[in-house]
Amino acid sequence: MKSWNFWIVVRRAPDIPGIWIAHCLDLNVLSEGESLSEAIESIPEAVAIVVGDALAAGIDPLRHRAPQHYWDDLNRLLRDGVPAGLPPDALDAQAATLEAVALQLRVTLQPAQQLPRAYEVPMFWSQQAAA
Amino acid sequence: MPYRLTDYSRALRTWGIDVEACGGRHPFKAIRGGDSFPFKAHNGMRSEISDRYISALCERFGIDIAEFKKKLSE
Q: How far is the C-alpha of B57 from the C-alpha of B35, rounded, in Å?
């Protein structure tokens, strides 16, 4: 059974107040939510749609990686961030002080090409810079 | 200022890309061949789409970002 680990970085939308955007860097696809946990819970479905459509058409789902500067941002987050072994909904209580969250998403291809997901902890976060 | 999904849909048609109904948390997706790009747009085609989506969307479909932004604003 084929499976992938995808890196996800979640940040606030720069142009829509109250919206968090989850970005899957391996596929360069995004989803969002009105809370940090909603964004995290939404990205697996977006990933499943993209992977499912690509596989159904016989093309490589991994051929659209995010540009390098997003990976540099992830590396900075992993280097400087705080490991956080918390479920996504527990992060909402701390969202006001968070700058970004990184996590890995494991996607496993099922025989019917349904793509269930599981969150991979550890996640990493970085604090928002003081104003 | 973020544009609405209806603006994205109109602009994408320039490149022969349709925005079609999807399901679940992502009611719409742009699709051409096996390349798709879902939108979590619960206010329908009037949903605001963050500018953060533009570069990923354009990369996926091989669209010049400046050209796409121009079409969005028309």
A: 10
Enumerate the residues of chain A whose CB falls inside 8 A of the CB of residue B60.
Answer: 28-29, 64
pLDDT tens per residue across span A40-63: 989 988 998 998 899 889 999 999
Nearest alpha-carbon partner for A80 in A113, A122, A125, A37:
A125
Q: Kindly list the residues from chain A whose CB atom is less than 8 angstroms away from the CB atom of residue B72.
A: none
DSSP state of A82: E
Q: Per the structure block, which two tokens stand in for A8?
A: 């996800």
Burial track A10-24 (b if 16+ CB lie within 10 A, e otherwise):
bbbbeebeebbbbbb
Does the distance separating the beta carbons of A49 and B38 come in below 8 Å?
yes
Closest of A115, A98, A96 to residue A106, by C-alpha: A115
Residues of chain B with pLDDT under 70: none
